[in-house]
Design a protein that fits this description.
Layout (H helix, E strand, L loop, with lengths): L3 H4 L1 H13 L5 H8 L6 H11 L5 H5 L8 H10 L3 H10 L5 H14 L5 H7 L5 H14 L2 H13 L2 H20 L3 H13 L4 H10 L1
Helix pairs in contact: 2-4, 3-4, 4-6, 6-7, 6-8, 7-8, 8-10, 9-10, 10-11, 10-12, 11-12, 12-13, 12-14, 13-14
């Protein structure tokens, strides 16, 4: 798994400032708020993104189908390093749809969860375009060979608008690979973008980056 907490230093710095401004908040307090009928549940999720551990995961997972609070809960689950947070997000893939499902897919990509790749591959051709696009971005972000194979498949065989989304995801993945020192893999991915049936400006962008 990627070093999650260090990927979101600006966000966590902001959330940490919330806890410092309200010293009475801790994990137990935040969980008590989530179990209550108060209107501070969003803030409790923000607190748990800073101080939450595995004990917070079940309460956060229950909010993944909440139209108002799901994004707050996902933010916390993205940065809780315990494996149970990833398990909760993966479990939600089979119970959600639409915007909420796309959000969970995005959070799985943020965590760099390679365990989720088989499930994400099933969603890459999802009939809801928002879900399919989020899935390609997540797979590209995970960046494993298996994940990127699905992105390349969408480049070659997907419908036109999804090919564009796959290309943007592939370009971002190639840039990250190059920065990480894996230039041969980045070059191979860029060549896949250049060879795909795409708008010329996207193919040119891949050529310029190669």
């Amino acid at each position: 798994m990627n070093p999650i907490r260090f990927s979101f230093i600006p966000l966590l710095a902001f959330l940490t400032s919330i806890t410092q401004a309200s010293p009475a908040w801790d994990e137990a307090t935040a969980l008590a708020v989530l179990a209550s009928d108060t209107e501070q549940k969003a803030r409790a999720c923000q607190i748990l993104a800073v101080v939450g551990g595995p004990e917070a995961v079940p309460a956060l997972a229950e909010l993944l189908d909440d139209n108002h609070l799901a994004s707050y809960a996902r933010t916390a689950l993205e940065v809780i390093e315990d494996p149970s947070a990833g398990e909760a997000l993966r479990a939600a893939l089979t119970t959600l749809e639409g915007r909420l499902l796309a959000g969970v897919v995005t959070s799985i990509g943020v965590r760099g969860d390679e365990t989720a790749v088989p499930a994400l591959q099933e969603l890459a051709s999802h009939p809801e375009r928002e879900v399919a696009e989020s899935t390609l971005v997540a797979l590209a972000g995970i960046g494993s060979e298996e994940a990127l194979a699905t992105v390349v498949q969408a480049l070659n065989q997907g419908p036109a608008d999804l090919r564009v989304s796959a290309a943007h995801a592939a370009l971002a993945a190639a840039e990250k690979m190059a920065k990480d020192g894996n230039k041969p893999a980045a070059q191979k991915l860029l060549e896949s973008v250049q060879a795909a049936v795409l708008p010329e400006h996207i193919r040119q962008a891949a050529g310029a980056a190669n």
